[in-house]
Amino acid sequence: xxxxxxxxxxxxxxxxxxxxxxxxxxxxxxxxxxxxxxxxxxxxxxxxxxxxxxxxxxxxxxxxxxxxxxxxxxxxxxxxxxxxxxxxxxxxxxxxxxxxxxxxxxxxxxxxxxxxxxxxxxxxxxxxxxxxxxxxxxxxxxxxxxxxxxxxxxxxxxxxxxxxxxxxxxxxxxxxxxxxxxxxxxxxxxxxxxxxxxxxxxxxxxxxxxxxxxxxxxxxxxxxxxxxxxxxxxxxxxxxxxxxxxxxxxxxxxxxxxxx
Length: 260
Fold this sequence. Notes:
Layout: H1 13-20, H2 29-40, E1 47-51, H3 57-66, E2 69-74, H4 77-89, E3 96-100, E4 113-119, H5 127-140, E5 141-154, H6 158-169, H7 178-187, E6 190-199, H8 205-226, H9 228-243, E7 248-257
Parallel strand pairs: 1-2, 1-4, 2-3, 4-5
Antiparallel strand pairs: 5-7, 6-7
């Protein structure tokens, strides 16, 4: 679906932001993802499974920066096709692969990995969905393998926030408290070894510039200013973020699969 055919009022928030030109769609921004990568201590030739790989940007960056081999899983066939074009253009077809698949059926991937990366994935699942995806992640990791997670945090007023986010984002969005995220990981068979929380400033102008860089940020702001439908929807989303800015945040964590 192209920006010109996207219904800005009914589309999910991530589709609307992407249509505006935003590439970094994680609640803690680029800085939080970089912190996760530092914790991971990637070694050349290690294998990484990325969930919801989208257009392949993160997978490409991981292969370029750390020399790892990356398999990305993406449900949307149009995104898979675009990711493959991007991978080929980057000259990384031998190190990066994006396959069409469902995060609820990771058992269909026969390989086990040194690391699994999942950013802004679990927040959008029901309690049972969260548990199922985490179990699938655990099964796809080698014993002692690392799970890197980057999710939305709700410090208080969870029921109210869930309702407000669902209405604004047009997706199920059920962030948990820090302790609830940790307990969820422990139940799935992980030991959380590092974690960090911070403010959720996804649509803060300063954060947009930091995440996207001046050129892409300028294009994003221009698109918002010149497209009324896009602008109205993004402003509505931002109002909800501002309303709950004290309660909403992000959590990143690094966890290890417990030895069997």
